[in-house]
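Late entry, evening session. Most of the bench is empty. Finally got around to the prediction I had been postponing all week. Sequence below, unchanged from the version circulated by S.P.
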Amino acid sequence: MSSLFPQGLFPELDIYIKDIIYNEVRKLTSNLPPPDIEEDEIWSLEKAASVIGVCTQTLSKMILRGEIVAVKPGRKWKLTKNNVTLYMNRKLN
């Protein structure tokens, strides 16, 4: 991972800030309910990206930032139709 500061200055501060950001993102995403996979339709990253109107790379970044809930049981992200709908409703309001 790259440094937040140019030329690798302040490595301790860099690690400290990244830890804070990571912990805050984990708190936000842990408060979200897990997807109900048994009753909900499972979508691929490609299908969800096309419905939302973004490219798959952008959607992957959104998932990593915790903007939308997804699971990665193997090598590919899986999203539920319900979580995509919830995300789109939050964006409209």
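Two things to note before I forget:
The two ends are 34 Å apart (CA to CA).
The first helix runs from residue 11 to 30.
Will write this up properly tomorrow.
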